[in-house]
Design goal:
7-stranded antiparallel beta sheet; 39% strand; 206 residues; mainly beta; 6% helix; single chain
Length: 206
């Protein structure tokens, strides 16, 4: 199990990843791409999903190659309806990608200017909703990418996968994920600064 420290208690089922690896803030989860490791939770309450306005996490890739690396995917369990935070490779190089898609409609795709570096922690904050979508990297209060779209996740999104994207085929990440935090609070620039905490991260445990 990967434990949800929030009041929702949506504990994830671990598919082979190493739990309590040395992390940035707490014990991280170490995913090995070649071993097809990931974690998941089905049956998440859709009304809770559609309230999400910010996803905040730390990621340390162990390798970067030409394929995609799925990081955090929230969807309906199909191959088309999802929100994806991180993709490495496949045209995007080692950039961070944030997208909301419903069916064949891509509402927006944000791509960072900062590249992920193997062996180095990167702080990622993705914001959606009123005021448009924003992607913040490493505590910089100026978003690296924005879009005017106010689209958010819908109540049909009931599946969460960490370390895996399943758009057409399976794309696993290779690295450590720590302090993954989803909230209905739409982060301000002050929240971005607070969460980054001068590069030390913030413990969100209640």
């Amino acid at each position: 199990m990967l434990l949800d420290e929030s009041e929702n208690k949506y504990d994830l089922t671990n598919q082979g990843a190493t739990f309590e690896a040395t992390g940035k803030v707490n014990g991280a989860v170490d995913f090995e791409k070649d071993s097809s490791q990931y974690a998941y939770k089905t049956g998440v309450t859709g009304t809770e999903i559609e309230k999400i306005r910010t996803i905040d996490l730390w990621y340390k890739p162990e390798s970067i190659d030409a394929s995609l690396h799925g990081l955090c995917v929230i969807g309906d369990g199909s191959t088309n309806n999802y929100m994806t935070l991180l993709k490495l490779g496949s045209g995007d190089g080692s950039k961070i990608s944030f997208r909301i898609t419903t069916g064949s409609t891509v509402h927006f795709t944000l791509l960072s200017t900062t590249s992920a570096v193997a062996g180095t922690w990167i702080h990622i904050i993705a914001v959606c909703g009123a005021g448009g979508a924003k992607l913040y990297i490493n505590g910089n209060t100026t978003p690296e990418a924005t879009n005017a779209s106010t689209n958010v996740m819908t109540s049909t999104f009931t599946t969460l996968r960490v370390g895996l994207e399943t758009y057409g085929t399976s794309y696993y990440c290779d690295g450590l994920i720590d302090n993954l935090f989803a909230t209905s609070n739409q982060y301000s620039t002050a929240d971005v600064t607070d969460s980054y905490n001068s590069g030390n991260g913030k413990d969100f445990k209640p």
